[in-house]
């Protein structure tokens, strides 16, 4: 089967974690936000049938990191790393597509502050 043509702003299989978990990174909006989309499958659930919180945290970390990297260049190639992340879960996700969104909420010297939704 031939591979699909690349889509502008859609990043697939860039990292081992992204490939393993199966989410897609979307930086196509052009507004400085980054989104990670995942279609929940049985391999993503915890023993209660909901999306495992660690997978969602990984997606949030990647979305916020991409949002930070977009401050350096439009391709998102500027390097950043997470130094602290606090996550609060509101409700379990059980089926369908989930989206983690990262956006810049401020800059303080060499630190970029992000929020994830």
Automatic annotation (TrEMBL):
<dbReference type="GO" id="GO:0016787">
    <property type="term" value="F:hydrolase activity"/>
</dbReference>
<feature type="domain" description="Thioesterase">
    <location>
        <begin position="48"/>
        <end position="107"/>
    </location>
</feature>
<dbReference type="InterPro" id="IPR006683">
    <property type="entry name" value="Thioestr_dom"/>
</dbReference>
<comment type="similarity">
    <text>Belongs to the thioesterase PaaI family.</text>
</comment>
<keyword id="KW-0378">Hydrolase</keyword>
<dbReference type="Pfam" id="PF03061">
    <property type="entry name" value="4HBT"/>
</dbReference>
<protein>
    <submittedName>
        <fullName>PaaI family thioesterase</fullName>
        <ecNumber>3.1.2.-</ecNumber>
    </submittedName>
</protein>
<dbReference type="InterPro" id="IPR039298">
    <property type="entry name" value="ACOT13"/>
</dbReference>
<dbReference type="InterPro" id="IPR003736">
    <property type="entry name" value="PAAI_dom"/>
</dbReference>
<dbReference type="InterPro" id="IPR029069">
    <property type="entry name" value="HotDog_dom_sf"/>
</dbReference>
